[in-house]
UniProtKB/TrEMBL annotation:
It comes from the Eukaryota. This is DASH complex subunit DAD2. Residues 1-24 are annotated as: Disordered. Belongs to the DASH complex DAD2 family. Its main location: nucleus. The keyword Cell division applies. It is found in: Chromosome, Centromere, Kinetochore; Cytoplasm, Cytoskeleton, Spindle; Nucleus. Coiled coil: none annotated. Pfam families: DASH_Dad2. Keywords: Cell cycle, Cell division, Centromere, Chromosome, Chromosome partition, Cytoplasm, Cytoskeleton, Kinetochore, Microtubule, Mitosis, Nucleus.
Length: 140
């Protein structure tokens, strides 16, 4: 038996332990990596949910900004028409006949324009009745 070289036992012993690691037990490094990947997956799911919430808030903000923009345009249109309104009031008050009291106040140094009041026509019959009653009470 001296002619046969002995086989190395280390290679023969490693083979069963390698297959045992792959089949049943896992190495601590591999187990740690799997746990790390699971934690990363949970973090990514949380990030996805938070991103969806931020996207929903951004869409709501977009709708509010669109409403604000429309309101701003309406206000700009009203403000751009104010000079026309003021000019119309000025022209209307310049063409009104001046009563005698206004002529006397002009002599005093303060000339005030005639007051312009708009009354909705749907209330005209009620207002006319009140005015008639006031005239009757004043004269009676």
């Amino acid at each position: 038996m001296a002619g046969i070289p002995p086989r190395p036992l280390t290679s023969h012993m490693r083979q069963p332990s390698l297959s045992a690691n792959l089949g049943g037990g896992q190495s601590p490094a591999l187990l740690a990596r799997v746990n790390e990947k699971k934690a990363e997956l949970e973090n990514l799911k949380e990030l996805r949910d938070l991103s969806a919430a931020v996207a929903a808030q951004m869409e709501a903000l977009e709708q509010k900004l669109a409403t604000l923009s429309d309101g701003t345009e309406a206000i700009a249109m009203v403000l751009s028409n104010w000079h026309n309104v003021l000019r119309a009031i000025s022209m209307a008050s310049a063409k009104l006949p001046k009563p005698a009291a206004a002529a006397e106040s002009a002599d005093a140094g303060v000339a005030l324009p005639e007051t312009l009041v708009r009354i909705p026509t749907e209330h005209a019959p009620t207002l006319q009745a009140h005015a008639d009653n006031a005239v009757e009470e004043g004269s009676g």
